[in-house]
Design goal:
2 strands; 10 helices; 48% helix; 222 residues; Endonuclease III, domain 1; single chain; globular; mainly alpha
Amino acid sequence: MTSPPNSDTPLPEGLIYGEDGRVRCRWASAAPDFARYHDTEWGFPVDDDHALFEKICLEGFQSGLSWRTILAKRPAFREVFCDFNFERVARFEQADVERLVTDARIVRHRGKIAATINNARRACEAADAHGSLGALIWQYEPPPPARRGREARRPREVVSKTPHSATLAKDLKKLGWRFFGPTTAYAFMQAMGLVNDHDRGCAIYRECEAARGQFTRPAAVR
């Protein structure tokens, strides 16, 4: 719905009215589960290590697929990967890879499953080196105005990666992480609140900005 009830005034491109009358980013209406994800998760800052690790892994699994597919399978992913407790996943062995490639509830991609186990070990290393995975990740938050996503770009300009996401992907690759390129890294930054990429006309934009303003960035332990 691009116009409010009893109105002929259309919304700008990229926005849509939800069934509750609130203005949202258009993609929030693309699938039944998207509105809740859009309203309560996407763009809000996250410092929980396991949540950050989950998103890194799921963005990797999404490569070549749709987020709708991954979101529908997320409960199963959480079950088989121990709620993305990377300390536990790091102890998985080859037998676990063989077990998981037969589990139809998840994406049965051997390389991505192996990468998740590898990345769990890298996450453990990051937590040891920095005090938390979040302390490493949040070092890559872009400075203003770049962190404000769409606000800092020309109208209708859509990007899939940025210099900041390229740097994050490159640095993690040097540390041994897999299936985390610049495009995946930017999707991760959008979802975890390192940038606020809600359209400025979206009702959730200000909520994300408020959450970011109150958010305490994880600090590295010296």
